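Mods, move this if it's the wrong board.
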Amino acid sequence: MHPIARTALAALALVTTVLLPGHAHAQSYPTGPIRLVVPYTAGGSSDFVARTMAQKMSEGLGQTVAVDNKPGVAGIPGTEVVARSAPDGYTIALIGLTTLAANPSLYRKLPYDATKDFTPIGNAIVSPLVLSVPASLPVANVQELIAYAKANPGKLNFGSAGVGNTLHLAGELFKSRAGIDIVHVPYKGASAAVTDLLAGRIHLMIDVVQTPLPHIQGGKLKALGTTGAQRIALLRDVPTIAEQGLPGFQFTTWIGLAAPAGTPPAVVARLHAEMAKALAMPEVREAFAKQGMEVAPSASPEAYAQHIRGEQERLASVIRGAGIQPE
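Not the wrong board. Structure tokens:
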């Protein structure tokens, strides 16, 4: 045998020896239950997405996908659990705008690297928000709200679920784009903020649709605009903010899945494929639509990684513009 051929065969044998275990693992995956860590409490919108996806993915994978709620400040503790887990596809994370896109700019030191410690799998949904005001506020649309705020600089305020929360960032972006002077009032949760909104103690709030929807339907709150590129199915008569004099305005939350860095590509591809199958099911799309969410699958894990990097840059700009200091 020619020396070059002999060398090539030896090299091939070495590569095969090194890669075979991982390849075999990927081919047989999964052989046991998968833990889906949700870094928030049970019962919320993120938990709803996780449990809906877990049920359908369990059917496709032939193994249980068990939801494990690990709540904590800004989703950090639960996200760290996955960052420190074995990269074998048996522990994955529910991720979103806060955990991997906003937190890097909100905290000087995270116990994980939002880019280096994770392998994105794919996105599941996007959720446009709704801007609502008390029924007593003398405005009927976004343009009237902007005019009212400009006539009363510094006298209006908006509530959120806390500093750096998604709702806070959406409010800051609206404040900046509208060129108005309104004061942020942080709460320990969205429910407390809505309570004060109903009482007129705060003047506006941008929130996920599910929270204010009963009060909008009951006439106690007025929905002035939504933050997506298109109108929300649950509020078809409410125009987007972009339609009302702020072209290009868009702020949607998103939720997807990620694995620890180093997870075999074939395992990531299998998880992405099962996500895509689940998201294509009519019953899944309908379940999310009833919650004001839109199915938005990623074309590939690589496309999702690129999306997350773009969101990190976008939110860093919003956070700097709002003068929010990292903790």
